[in-house]
Amino acid sequence: MPRERLDEPGLGLTGTTWTRVSPKLVWTELITTVVIGLVVTAGCVLIAVVSGGFERTAGTVWWCIAIVVFVIAAVTAALTPRRVRAIGYALRDDDLVLRRGLMWQRFTAVPYGRMQLVDVNRGPLDRVLGMSELKFVTAAASTNVRIPGIPFADADDLRDRLVELAESRRAGL
Amino acid sequence: MTFRPGPPPPAPETRGNAAAAAPLTDGEWHRLHPLTPLLKGGIFLIVILGYVLNSLRDQVVEFFIPGSGPQEDGDPVRYVYEHGVVGWVLLGIVVLLVVLIGLFYLSWRMHEFRVTGEIVEVRSGVLFRTNRKARLDRIQGINISRPLVPRVFGTAKLEIAQAGNDANVQLAYLGAKAADDLRQRILVLASGAKEDEDGTGPVRASNGRLMDHVDQVFAPELDPAAVHATRIVKVHPGRLIASMLLSGTTVFILLAIAAMIVSVALTGEYGILFGLFPAVIGAGGYYVRKFSRSLQYTIAETRDGIRIGFGLVSTSNETLPPGRIHAVSVAQPLLWRPFGWWDVRINRATNAGNGASNNQQVSSIVLPVGTAADVRVVLDIILPGLVGTAVAGPAASQEQLREGASEAVDVVDDSLTTSGDRGGFVHSPRRGAWLRPLAFRRNGYRFVPGAVLLRLGAVWRSLVIVPLPRVQSVKVSQGPLERALRLASVHVQTVQGPVTAHVGALDAHDAQQLWADTAGRAVEAAAADTSHRWREREARQPSVTSPADVHTAGSGAPAGPGPDHRTGTVPPGSSWSDVPPPGAAR
């Protein structure tokens, strides 16, 4: 069966230069995935053991759940480097385009004039690695555009640039 | 009682109160209607008075017919009467009343508002002062509600809706006439028009003070001449009742009743039925409330936008200036299908009615129920200001706007029930049936000038119209299942509301095309959009050379931000800085 991904020619983005995020983001994502995966798996295993292990039906079900959780976490962790490489953004003339995701691919275009504010967030892991996350807020709650893994200095520059662009193209709501 | 009010307001600025005939938009500070303290705090006084009177009744009865009334212990009024301290208690009550009235009076004195060419500002509070300024060009709607009691006193509540949570400006209460007049003037100022050309509309002959008041109390909710209405849609009460009975809530209630009957029949326990009374009363109350709030529902086209009004005893009506609607959906619940009824809902940037002020209905429903013909008229009313401006440009006349929106109206009208290629829609391919088994031939999109239309659902039919100048962002996404089927979905994101513009299971190529086109057109449309000052273009044409435009004239600011104002791209900072601080010499 032919597979068709969302691609630049189809989206009219041919020739767009994507700015990729810092490769160090892999570590943040990986640590988060591994920790959450292990904690949830451990919890499931604990419940499985308490409810009687493989001898009882309930225990068997919980063991299966634990294995599924572990496999999902492992696959997510294994794909993390590729997923991080897939994140990119481009500042076009009038809007910002953000691409994310491998399996769940998505492209979001936000006109500059629609930006209400720009947040710069730094989590503890991000701070150790010298990265920030930029978040754009529009009047639509569902827009939810976040670009993780931008080096400190670049993040501030990008924020100032975006605020400037938004200011020059300001429109009503 | 130690009571220390804040610094007194600069008194000389205030020129009478809102009941006076002087225009309220002169940039000076005004007070609310003098009955406001009574209407706001009167409830407490009435409750206290009612309690005392109720208790006294027994006393009075006993006074005239000794030994007859029931003698209860622990009744405070009786205790007071028997111990001969009536005088003290009366004195106490009088003091309490005087203090309360004094407090209400003080809070009324300290509650002031003013409207300039740029902002509306309210300051209030005695101990904790609050001051709220709202920009006129960001007004999302002005609502006037008249609950029963204030209506009897000839007053009304005016609420200016602003974008954001709890961002509304409330003026409660104003004189009924003053409220209408103030709304008219605020809309004129906000629209950017030079001035109100034909004044206040027809003036009715006076039949004496009392009769005027009576007329006002019993006046119909909508007076077409007074609001310059050119087109009106009314909702028939019979149809309203039928549409409410044919709702999902009714189905749920019927299912619950069926479940009860079955369980009673199986168990033979009739006691369970008595536990149902609260539920029955609740359901009845729900219908009555919903019905009484929707009675006399009217949608009218006025010069300053759409006017939506409703209510029989407590009326409420709201004017939405053009360009304040972010998405429109025309939908048909399954049960309405045999009757061909539709409802029209909208997304708005304001959160009016999130609990605080209960006008949820005004916020999102434009047409509670109507036939396809009604839907067409309603779209004719709301779309010119949304779609028309994006097509015909900012300098177009009303006729051009209507013409610009006509294609959108025609397409929507034509496509309410269609499927397939009819109407120029790009719809899901055959393999979309895996994800949209019934709707794949209907599920589609098309562009009309100024808007993107989504045609959705074969069972629960709906049509979503998103005006391009209001698009906040566009997203195209594809999950693993969609990838295997070579499909993708597109989400046109607007402000939050009952309308979601999301179309899934499109052919991947079509979806990408939709994404790219919407992104591009939205930018263009937003750049040309001037609906935040919707009538400025009319004002501009006759007086392009005139240096004093309405903003500087209205606010009295020394130097306006110049030509920026006329291009429609107003940087928010500059207009704020024009407003002189309160108390500045004017």
Q: How would you sum up this structure, described in words?
A:
- The complex is a heterodimer of chains A (173) and B (586).
- By secondary structure, chain A is of the alpha+beta class.
- Chain A has two domains: 25-83; 87-168, PH-domain like, CATH 2.30.29.
- Chain A contains five helices and seven strands; from the N terminus they run H-E-H-H-E-E-E-E-H-E-E-H.
- Chain A has helices at residues 8-11, 25-50, 57-86, 124-129, 152-168, and strands at 19-20, 88-91, 95-100, 105-111, 115-121, 131-138, 145-151.
- Chain B has 586 residues and is of the alpha+beta class.
- Among the domains of chain B are: 33-110, no CATH class; 236-294; 298-531, no CATH class.
- Chain B contains 19 helices and 21 strands.
- Chain B has helices at 36-64, 76-83, 86-110, 148-152, 176-191, 209-217, 237-245, 248-267, 271-274, 277-294, 360-364, 372-392, 398-415, 480-484, 508-528, 536-540, 550-555, 564-567, 572-578; strands at 30-31, 112-115, 119-124, 130-135, 139-146, 155-162, 169-175, 231-234, 298-302, 305-310, 315-320, 325-332, 341-348, 365-371, 426-427, 444-448, 451-456, 461-467, 473-478, 487-493, 501-507.
- In chain B, strand 17 and strand 18 (461-467) form a beta hairpin.
- In chain B, helix 1 (36-64) packs across helix 2, helix 7 packs antiparallel against helix 10 and helix 12 (372-392) crosses helix 13 (398-415).
- Chain B is globular, with a radius of gyration of 29 Å.
- The two termini of chain B are 38 Å apart.
- The chains are: A alpha+beta (173), B alpha+beta (586).
- The interface between A and B is large, with 39 and 47 residues.
- Strand 4 of chain A pairs antiparallel with strand 19 (473-478) of chain B, so a sheet runs across the interface.
